[in-house]
Amino acid sequence: SRLKRSQLKVRFCTNESQVSRKDLVVLLRRKGFDISEGEVTAPAPATCLVLKERGLRPHLLIHDGIRSEFDHIDTSNPNCVVIADAGESFSYRNVNKAFQVLMELENPVLISLGKGRYYKQTSGLMLDVGAYMKALEYACGIEAQVVGKPAPEFFQSALWEMGVEAHEAIMIGDDIVGDVGGAQQCGMRALQVRTGKFRPSDEHHPEVKADGYVDDLAEAVDLLLQHAHQ
Question: Where in this chain does the entry annotate a coiled-coil region (predicted)?
């Protein structure tokens, strides 16, 4: 809320693919965030745009929590596969069905809502959609199209929606590859927070070096507001 009271523009970029944008905003508002659906850039609505533009009818391997995002998408006679973080729905049967759909297509198209390796919950680290995306890529001999971080188009769409250039924006996130690396590839600067999925080894990543590290989101906000008032 301090950021929103300043003259800075704010956008929430998420790879959340178990919860719809609507439900995500409800959860964040309960935690005290001043946020609306229009301020959230998320992979499910972005994927729906891609599907409509390309005339694609997906076989969906997704979590029930985001199924409502695809209510207006034709899923009959599928000519592609869309996967998200399906959680417990990543059973052998369901992953194998997605594999079979792809193998039956003359030009197989696999779209993945992100390519994260893992994320953190209170119960520990959890496998993310990227692990299953790689399995299908390997089995089918294809390359997935990623909609979400770290895909450049995802960050660029958020920048376009805010009306700012990449060099004017700073990304704050806990993922050294998805948040920091993806943003930097688009010409943005990026701070990594030492919370969430952050691991000390991230500060010595062989390929990605954050522009700065902060202990938490509040410290990142302090830095941005200091810089904005200079």
Answer: none
